UniProtKB/TrEMBL annotation:
Matches recorded under CDD domains: MiaE (cd07910)
Domain of life: Bacteria
Organism for this UniProt entry: Halomonas alkalicola
Source taxonomy: Bacteria, Pseudomonadati, Pseudomonadota, Gammaproteobacteria, Oceanospirillales
Protein name: tRNA-(Ms[2]io[6]A)-hydroxylase
Ranges in a coiled coil: none
């Protein structure tokens, strides 16, 4: 007697992400970016490695600058260690695939957000933390968008990153609210609009946080 096995369930990006994270982002990653990423698997991993290294560097800079904030010190120390571990994991994955790690120029994404940071404290720190939340949330969302299209090894790795990046987004947002002198919803809305603009406008070079192909 033959047995018909059920078709494997294909998990959508939304199934991997919390409703809170999806609501936090003003838009989803366009399909055009996903297609662009799949056409550039080497650049995807190289820039991913650079993003992990930059995330660790950002956490370390906050550790050095804001030594009077115990909760921030604890969270940024944890985050820096985890981001460096992810960097090592991406580099190892690249080596197994014959991809050499090299320097490539950064996308305009992070700088496009940071140009709006206020100069005076504590507003400066709060803005940086809000931006950190958006970068981590967008990274999480893009990993989830890519997973259904990737080979099993990379898809499994990116699934683990969806969980960790989601936690980083929550930590950044919690710290921003904890350290702000007043409610920050208007600043979150402001950066949500800026972030969505960057994600949806054209870019000439593919990067992990680039917009759509020009």
């Amino acid at each position: 007697m033959s047995v018909t096995l059920p078709e494997p369930v294909r998990v959508s990006a939304d199934d991997l992400l919390s409703a809170e994270l999806l609501d936090f982002l003003r838009c989803r990653t366009p399909d055009a970016w996903v297609a662009w990423a799949l056409e550039n698997p080497e650049l995807l991993l190289i820039d991913h490695a650079q993003c992990e290294k930059k995330a660790a560097s950002t956490a370390m800079s906050l550790l050095y600058r804001y030594v009077d904030q115990p909760l921030l010190l604890t969270k940024m120390s944890q985050l820096a260690r985890e981001e460096l571990l992810h960097f090592e994991q991406v580099v190892t994955l690249m080596e197994s695939r014959g991809i050499s790690y090299r320097h490539i120029s950064a996308s305009r994404y992070a700088e496009g957000l940071r140009r709006h940071v206020q100069a005076e404290e504590p507003n400066r720190l709060v803005d940086i933390l809000i931006i950190g939340a958006f970068i981590e949330a967008r990274s999480c969302e893009r990993f989830a968008r890519l997973i259904p299209h990737l080979d099993p090894e990379l898809a499994k790795f990116y699934r683990t990153l969806v969980k960790s990046e989601g936690r980083h987004y929550e930590d950044y947002l919690m710290l921003a609210r904890h350290l702000a002198a007043s409610p920050i919803e208007s600043r979150i809305a402001f950066f949500a609009d800026r972030e969505a603009e960057l994600v949806q406008t054209p870019d000439t070079a593919f990067r992990f946080h680039s917009g759509v192909p020009a």
